[in-house]
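Objective 1b: paired records.
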Amino acid sequence: MAVPLDGADDSLAPYNVVAIKPAITSIIVATITMTMAPFVRKNVVYSSTYSAKVFPYFFYNEKGRIWITVPDDDLRRVAKGGSIDFTGRAISEEGDMRRVDGHASPTGPLTGKIRVRVFVTKRISLSYDTTYDLRGGPSPALALTPKPAR
């Protein structure tokens, strides 16, 4: 009996670490810059830390943890050039819980555009448009390519 090799080289390793570029959004009286450390994937959850700087109201600055859920099937869709939606949560160092949702669209094999919405309250959200870079490394199939004999 033959086993299909369709998923044999389908590795999700390049998706293990995702770097999100800093993003800026504005509200009527302030500008908020969101900076996130690279997201690291464990199972279906990406987690990171964030820093939100509010100008000119520095006393509203916030730091915390953020995590989003992206199932393997969604990552495979991205690998084929498709867009995905995701959801998650953030919690500030003060304990304020925030709902997070977003949309990611690949622009190349290792890059893409991303929109992240962070809900400050049930009715108020901040939207950030930025880009991402995959930094999880080569797929195992590429890493195991034998060197030519000398």
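Objective 1b, second protein:
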Amino acid sequence: MKIVYTSHVLKEKIPKEKALGWDITKSKIKQTIVNPKWKGVTRSKQSTAMSLLDKGHMLRVIFEKEGGIIRVITVHIARRGTYESTKED
């Protein structure tokens, strides 16, 4: 499985989250995709994977799969409870 990241994720989202005090790395994003706590689908039918960061926050990764490639569209930090109504693994 190959994971590619949009420039939006690498140049905007990761630095923005780091500036806010969150240590979001490509490794953490990959770990979330491979072993999510929750999975879901956005309104526009993109896949989501979520993992816990702490008691009150989660990392949400929005991505698309095509063949053997996963393309990470965006990531963001969400408060727990916001997206947890999706399927739990």
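The longest helix spans residues 7-19. Residues 50 and 60 are 5 Å apart (CA to CA).
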